[in-house]
Records
---
Amino acid sequence: MDNLVSAAHQFKPQGEVIAIEEYGNGNVNDTFLVTLDFKEEKHFILQRINTQVFRRPELVMLNMRTFSEHVRQRLQRAPLSPGRRWEVVRVLLTEDGQDHWIDPEGSFWRGINFIDGSQSFETIKDIEHGKEVGFALGMFHNLLSDLPSEKLVDTLEGFHIMPRYLHHYDEVLAQNRPRKSPEVDYGLQFIEERRAWANVLENAKGQGRLRLRPIHGDPKVNNVMMDNATGQAISIVDLDTVKPGLVHYDIGDCLRSGCNPLGEETEQWEMVRFDPELSQAILQGYLSLARDFLTQNDYEYLYDAVRLISFELGLRFFTDYLEGNVYFKANHQKHNLARALVQFKLTESIEAQKKAIRSIIRDMR
Ligand code: GN1
Ligand code: MG
């Protein structure tokens, strides 16, 4: 608690800190909203980085700075069409000009500006919202499309690399024989049935059919900020996983998050389904800005990407449940099992609607 208050004081732009509260639903880092008695900047975001996950947090900050500087210059050279607001999050500095602060116990803290007049949602409300979420990802990729991916450091090795997740799953399974239950059996079998296909994106990358680009890594619905007044998307936040990757990870993640109207935390996992109409809206918004830089090969793997990233997240949650919840924060012992089942059901629904989803993608090319 003392460290939390001290951390808030390190980054506060001006004024006095009047409140600090937990904020958002992050599964990895701890996030707080700090309120100040300063009219010009009433809030900022304070975060404690999970250094078990991000082993080199200073490199995460380096990527954030590379990213913001690139986008700032790009927007200066080629401003957006009038009437469109787009915000890039700003890293706050400490009094001695550092982009982070390490507390006496070794925790890594950082401050980020709060985007005024905006909010995010856990699920997509309607078709318009869907288009805006897709637009936001398209804008993000577009603004980075001329940044060589080598300019970004790989801050989370193995992130979205399916063979690595399967390998880790096998290791965990070898060490922790899970207690049998219908849900666990379902998960075990679900994974086995998809194992052979699961390297599809990494294989395509290996064959040179897909190439690395700067990606967001975590473009789920609640990372897209919506302007309260206009309802337009104005930013994508949570830049921890900005690094080289396949745009397919991002598109897949955006769709698996956006097209699941019950949301990833629902307890009604048996009711989960993928909504193709929302996928059409998201892709429409996305392609309005991404069409120019997607190749024919990129389109070929879009369906696989949606199916794979849902499966991948299910596998990651399931493995973490078996391992004893060491990666994702959990509110109860079976929380990550419940989350895994949601993603597996979503994957099943995607598979059942393969034809419809493929034809939506085809019609949009
Ligand atoms: C994690 O912590 P959060 O909520 O921003 C995870 C993502 C998952 C997401 C699922 C670094 O993101 O990959 O898609 O949970 N981030 C990391 O909600 O593993
Ligand atoms: Mg995240």
---
Amino acid sequence: MGRSVRERLVVPPGTPAGLAGRDPSGTPGVRSRKAAERETAKLQERLADLQERLYAERARSLLLVLQGMDTSGKDGAIKHAFASLSPSGTKVTSFKAPTEVELRHHFLWRIRKTVPEPGQVGIFNRSHYEDVVVVRVKRLAPRTVWSKRFAEINAFEERLAREGTTLVKVFLHISPDEQRERLLARLEDPSKRWKFNPGDLDDRARWARFRTAYEEALTRCSTEAAPWYVVPADRNWYRNWAISGLLVETLEDLAPAYPTPELDLAALRNRLEGSIAED
Ligand code: AMP
Ligand code: MG
């Protein structure tokens, strides 16, 4: 038996995330692009089946949290996941810089409002982790404020898990070289230019500080209740394989089952057969 995708990519709780030692263009667990694409197609089918069961059961929920630098592939990952998820059971929330109203509340206020309902798969495109990463890097709050948040996040996520929401937290790990290529592609390709945000270059210039902030967030907030996974993201096909695998393995552990209502089948069939009203 090979190791699971989760085992390969997890940040073991209580250990450093070790981003410097994880290769963004690595492909752990995969022999070739071809093999990965074949496996991904199969994983997608399993994911569709598992999600339908989760939805039918309406008892528990799954929350995929996506973090990563600009162009790390958060939108691409969502698009790919959606290819096998049913829109009725899925909700994507994108977190931007907080509004004035949001800023007047606790940083978890806007997050709590959007956690998935029982039966749902929620996807966070950015999340409460911005409040310990970008807030730190851009000095939007003093250290005394953001440094208390790691413990708050852990308590919040532990509670979510206890109440039936399983978190799958994914850091999309790209290299600065790959980001340059992707930003250049956005500039040059008219169909991608709308995605180019000059502000992304300011974030790019702070690469090392983002790296430090992510390193600490992933290290301090990878817990038994809600571990972090680092997905090498320089290759989109690997990213898709890894995320499909993480979702399938997590849902298989939950083993959602179709409800088995007690119905008097014979009586219901009879009624159905005579159910067309006649004038
Ligand atoms: P994008 O995901 O590229 O559309 O951009 C969203 C922007 O919102 C990013 O630059 C994030 O860093 C920023 N953002 C998200 N959450 C927060 C937050 N809590 N505080 C400050 N900026 C944030
Ligand atoms: Mg951006």
